[in-house]
Design the sequence.
């Protein structure tokens, strides 16, 4: 998942970026509204953290322009304390959530997780595909209840696929959502990571759709289930 952080206070911007990278996001940072607007306009972000008080173009205007141009990525705004009118204006301009400065990084992380989850249509912090489970809160991945150790890049790729289950995801799309803009991108390396992921997971959940990309879906014969007791329900359509 790729995040754009638009914040003009250098220390805070660095701190947010470090926290998000640590949590497994690809992060781009902009320090004024013009650069931030441009990035949000041209790069596909899964979520945006937008400070309202920004140089060149203020955050509210940035948000209004995106929404006017049909950009619908989830946006969390950073507002000053005791400025309730900012929150109202932010929501009216198309914000999805806010945190008030100063804030705890844990709260920001939790709110971003919730935003990404809602956008992808998931209700819980645990994403499941067959026997593979990814906990978006802890970053833990298990297959058949065994913990799988993944590198940062492998985790980013699996997290993106888990959020877009049953959809065909091209290599270009994966590249755009798991690398930040400074990364020397090469979509061929995606193939290498996918190969390693398949090996580590040991289950056939990442399908190759020839000429199109990849699709994450439970192995054949395993019924996808959003309910509470997946193991019991599996018998329903047996045979
Ligand atoms: Ca500011």
Sequence:
């Amino acid at each position: 998942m790729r995040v754009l952080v638009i914040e003009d206070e250098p220390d805070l911007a660095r701190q947010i970026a470090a926290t998000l990278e640590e949590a497994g996001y690809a992060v781009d940072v902009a320090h004024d509204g013009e650069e931030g607007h441009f990035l949000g306009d041209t790069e596909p972000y899964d979520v945006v953290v937008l400070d309202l008080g920004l140089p060149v173009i203020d955050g509210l205007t940035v948000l209004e322009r995106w929404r006017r141009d049909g950009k619908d990525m989830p946006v969390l705004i950073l507002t000053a304390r005791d400025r309730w009118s900012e929150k109202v204006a932010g929501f009216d301009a198309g914000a999805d959530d806010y945190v008030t400065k100063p804030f705890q990084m844990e709260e920001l992380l939790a709110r971003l997780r919730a935003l990404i989850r809602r956008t992808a249509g998931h209700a819980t912090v645990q994403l499941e595909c067959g026997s593979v489970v990814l906990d978006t809160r802890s970053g833990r991945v298990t297959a058949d209840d065994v913990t799988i150790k993944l590198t940062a890049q492998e985790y980013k790729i699996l997290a993106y696929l888990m959020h877009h289950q049953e959809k065909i995801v091209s290599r270009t799309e994966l590249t755009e959502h798991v690398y930040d803009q400074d990364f020397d991108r090469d979509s061929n390396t995606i193939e290498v990571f996918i190969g390693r992921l398949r090996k580590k997971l040991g289950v056939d959940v990442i399908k190759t759709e020839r000429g199109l990309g990849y699709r994450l879906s439970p192995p054949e014969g395993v019924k996808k289930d959003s309910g509470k007791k997946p193991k019991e329900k599996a018998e329903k359509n047996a045979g």
